[in-house]
Amino acid sequence: MDKSSYTLLPNRTDNRCFGCGPANPHGLQMQFYTNGETVASWITVPPHLCGWSNLAHGGILFTALDEIMGRTLIYLLRRFILTKTMTVEYLKPVPHSRELKVEGRILEVRSEREAMAEGVIINDAGEICTRATGLWATFTADAAKKLGVADEETFRWFEQLMATKR
Known about the structure:
Layout: E1 7-8, E2 33-34, E3 39-44, H1 58-77, E4 80-90, E5 99-111, E6 114-122, E7 128-139, H2 141-147, H3 152-162
Antiparallel strand pairs: 1-2, 2-3, 3-5, 4-7, 5-6, 6-7
């Protein structure tokens, strides 16, 4: 799957998040790319994260969609986020061990504190296999600090990400 029109976004090397942490050898280790309008990641679900013997587990697909929508809002809105609600549609079976494109976009900014996003998982035939929509709480960095939603290293990473051109 072609990544040539996308730019890699920075990630923390010490990040242990199951979805996006490069320091978590058991997770998805998602890397995020942008074309300025959407954020995308390419993943291959390993066999140890299967549901039925040949399919990716639905909870893993849910996780990938949560991650892509969250990173989309963080990068494009330049705000911290927390998931409020998510709805997922499983449209086609997703085999494990095959490359998938996970892509997010903003659907609506409802206010300075709330936004909606959509995420899709696309197979190598270009078919949407899984779709999610979510409602997210959004915060300025100052508000996120007051709420204690992240550590200082995360705020430093956020500043680095914000320096990345859209």
